[in-house]
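Co-fold these.
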Amino acid sequence: MTSLAPSALITVAAVMVLYLGVLLFIGWRAARRTHGGEDFHLAGRSLGAWAAGISSTASSESGWVTLGAVGMTFTHGVSGLWYAPGCLLGYLVNLYIVAPRLREMSATQGSVTLTDVLTRRWGDPHNVLRTTATAIILVCMMGYVAAQMTAAGKAFSSSLGFEGRGGYLLGVVIGAVVIILVTSLGGFRAVAWTDLFQGLLVAAALIALPLYAVYRLGGFGALVQGLGAIDPHLLSAAGDRTGPVLWGFVIGQLGIGLGYPGMPHVITRYMATRDDRQVQRLQLIAMMWGIVVFYGAGLVGLAGRVMLPELADGEQALMALALRLVHPVLAGLLLAAVISAILSTVSSQLLVAASAVSYDVVEESLGKARDDRRSLILGRWTVALVGLIGIAVALSEVRLVFWFVLFAWSGLGAAFAPLILLALGRRGVNRHGALAAMLTGIGVTVAWKLGRDASTSPQIFARVWWIALLAAAAILAIGHFSRAFARGDVVGVVAATALTELAWLVVQRWGFSSLYELVPAFFAAGLAALVVSALTRE
Amino acid sequence: MDEHSLTLGANLLLWVFPLVLTILVVAERLLDARARGR
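Predicted complex below.
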């Protein structure tokens, strides 16, 4: 970015400032319509199809879609596109199975958060489910928020021309402060409206840029010839993979979609939708957004590989193409789209983390601030506090926190997605099975990831089987001494520990190095829910 | 110069899958709207 001419840099920076101004304006408008706790945490269940649909998809994709997905096809060619069917199958399940049922269930229950849905579905007399779910959400979301703030800081500092460590710090602070202000003032409504604005910006960028890039290359035929000349494997769905590695890769990429029903920042959009008719409309809107964005990102990566052979980092292809191909005003908009993808996720995750503290812990578990006005004030201050912690972590770059992010998607997906599907399917699951599923989902995710790739993990986690036993003993001790655990909960913890140890043994013995950890963790969690529920049926 | 082309799998992955999916979700919406109109 710093290689831009000063006049172009000023133009790009001006577009960025305008973009941030729009976000603040939307936040201010939303704040004027936010009057109580349910308004703050769920927009008073009043979202229309466009806001709910685009917000659900934009908040799920993060900077991954404008950076990571682009880098996948830049590096691997067409075979890097396997993430697209994986994600879109997840969209299908979420939009056509989860969304209508979850909206109806949460409206009937009067539930406000994902944790609320689960605890009201199965009952939770001693707050065992609520505490476990809140802890998992907080750990995953805080790591996520800090990592996204770091990414936003880097994108801001480069697009606004800030240099060095000071520039990075300034970039983090600018992006984070705007998002904290918007989210704390306007709550869920502000997050959904800014997501709509940002999601449309991302979609427009990922339609216009790849089409223009392919046009500049001389058409789709020229793109194919260019890729083939670099490496014929770039034109194959398998790439240079064969045998078990290929199947592990394909199953793993398709398995990404298994996580969507468990993402609290995504599925709460469905809970906030006004009525069934809006849910039916949002299904088409969200599916079309997903198809356009995933394939647009893939095409940007393919075009970038041919047009920018000197580019060392494929994840920078969108920004590099924007700066090379279009006028600085449009380049500024495209860079704003990259940052939009990041900030729309930060705001959603920030709100989920804050709701976990202010609603699930303070209001429900501790029974405080049940008054609507107090609930709103509590929510606002919690967003500010959680956001400031996120800034502090992003600025200090605590390595262990960023290491947790590697587990965030698969951990949340495995802990909650099977449970949400079982809750909506009204299968024979009880609260002990639900506890077992959450612990198994997290346990197997960590065991599988560390087991297959131990060399990249901190030394302390080199022997997961031992840590899993200690964690289980700690959970059982806390449950026993707080008198919260029933016999069924003990069965749940033991089952989760056994499945975690089994996953560790399997991956140690047979490897499965290319299989994404979400796949075994998802099925293990579902199995744990059903088996423990059957064993503890009253 | 060698002539290059997408493999069958690449064709399916790159454009057949998104096209079929688009047709299915649009058709579902239209059929649903028609059923409600009756």
